[in-house]
Amino acid sequence: MFEIIRKETLAEGIKLFEVAAPEIAKKAEPGQFIILRKDERGERIPLTIADFDRNLGILVLIFQEVGRSTKELGCMEVGDKILDLAGPLGRASEIEEYGRVVCIGGGVGIAPVYPITRALNNADNEVISIIGARSADQLILKDKMAEISHQLYIASDDGTIGQKGFVTDVLAKLLADEVKIDLIVAIGPLPMMQAVSEVSRPFGVKTTVSMNPIMVDGTGMCGACRVAVGDKTKFACVDGPEFDGHKVDWDLAIKRSRMFLAEEKQAIEHSCFGGECQCQKKK
Amino acid sequence: MSKEKVKIERQSMPHQEAAERIQNFSEVALGYNEEQALLEASRCLDCKKPTCMEGCPVEVDIPVFIKHIKAKEYQMAIDAIKMKNNLPAICGRVCPQENQCEKHCVLGKKFTPVAIGRLERFAADWEFKQPSETRENNKGKSGKKVAVVGSGPAGLTAAADLAMFGYQVTVFEALHTAGGVLVYGIPEFRLPKAIVEREIQGIKQLGVEIRTNMVVGAVNTIDELMKNGFDAVFIGTGAGLPNFMQIPGENLNGVYSANEFLTRTNLMKGYLFPEYLTPIRIGKKVAVIGAGNVAMDSARTALRLGAEESYIIYRRSDKEMPARGEEIEHAREEGVKFRLLTSPVEIIGDEKGWVKALKCQRFELGEADESGRRRPVAIPGSEYEMEMDTVVMAIGQGPNPLVPRTTPDLQLNRHGNIIADETSGQTSKKGVFAGGDIVTGAATVIQAMGAGKKAARAIHEYLSN
Question: For the whole model, what pTM was predicted?
Answer without folding.
Answer: 0.93
